[in-house]
C-alpha cells in the first residue's frame, strides 16, 4: 500500500488549504482512512477519519472548519481546511486503517505534508 499526500503550504490565519491523499496498492473502498497531524513537541492526533460505511469523525477543534471527502475514481482522500488558525500548524499525515472501522491499527501512512498558518 502506498500513500502520498500533497497540498500543504503556508497560509495566513483565516485562509484555506486542501490536502490530497492518493492511495494505491489496495482497494480504495475496502479500508477506513483518515488524516492525522503532529505539531512539534506534541503527539500525533486524529483530525478526521471515515469508515468504509461512510461515518465520519472529526476532532472537536476542527469541526465546522475541516471537511473530509473522497474521489473513488481517483483513489484520493481530501481534507478541505477552512478558517485556518495558527494552532493548525503541523505536519499532516494520511492513514489507511487496517480494516473498515477506525482503530489503532494501520496498514499504511503517508510521508506527511507541512501546513503552516501564520497570524
Highlighted features:
mainly beta; seven-stranded mixed sheet; four-stranded antiparallel sheet; 119 residues
Note down, in words, how this protein is organized.
The structure is a single chain. With 119 residues, the chain is mainly β. Helices cover 0% and strands 52% of the residues. It contains no helices and 11 strands. It has strands at 2-6, 9-12, 17-24, 33-38, 45-50, 56-58, 66-71, 76-81, 90-97, 106-109, 113-118. 29% of the residues are buried.
Given as residue ranges, the uncertain stretches (5+ residues, pLDDT < 50) are: none
Please, how many helices?
Answer: 0
> What structural class results from the helix and strand content?
mainly beta
Quaternary structure: single chain
How would you describe the shape? Answer: globular
Number of DSSP E strands: 11
Give Rg in angstroms.
13 Å
Quick recap of the structure?
By secondary structure, the protein is mainly β. It has no helices and 11 strands. The strands form 2 sheets. Strands 2, 4, 5, 6, 9, 10 and 11 form a 7-stranded mixed β-sheet that branches. A 4-stranded antiparallel β-sheet has the order 1-3-8-7, with no helix packed on it.
List the helices and strands and how they pair.
Blueprint: E1 2-6, E2 9-12, E3 17-24, E4 33-38, E5 45-50, E6 56-58, E7 66-71, E8 76-81, E9 90-97, E10 106-109, E11 113-118
Parallel strand pairs: 2-11
Antiparallel strand pairs: 1-3, 3-8, 4-5, 4-9, 5-6, 7-8, 9-10, 9-11
Amino acid at each position: 500500500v502506498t500513500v502520498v499526500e500533497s497540498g500543504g503550504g503556508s497560509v495566513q490565519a483565516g485562509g484555506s488549504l486542501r490536502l490530497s491523499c492518493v492511495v494505491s496498492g489496495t482497494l480504495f473502498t475496502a479500508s477506513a482512512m483518515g488524516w492525522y497531524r503532529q505539531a512539534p513537541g506534541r503527539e500525533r492526533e486524529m483530525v478526521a477519519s471515515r469508515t468504509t460505511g461512510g461515518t465520519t469523525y472529526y476532532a472537536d477543534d476542527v469541526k465546522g472548519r475541516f471537511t473530509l471527502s473522497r474521489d473513488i475514481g481517483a483513489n484520493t482522500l481530501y481534507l478541505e481546511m477552512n478558517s485556518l488558525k495558527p494552532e493548525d500548524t503541523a505536519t499532516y499525515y494520511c492513514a489507511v486503517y487496517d480494516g473498515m472501522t477506525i482503530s489503532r491499527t494501520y496498514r499504511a501512512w503517508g510521508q506527511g505534508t507541512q501546513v503552516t498558518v501564520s497570524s
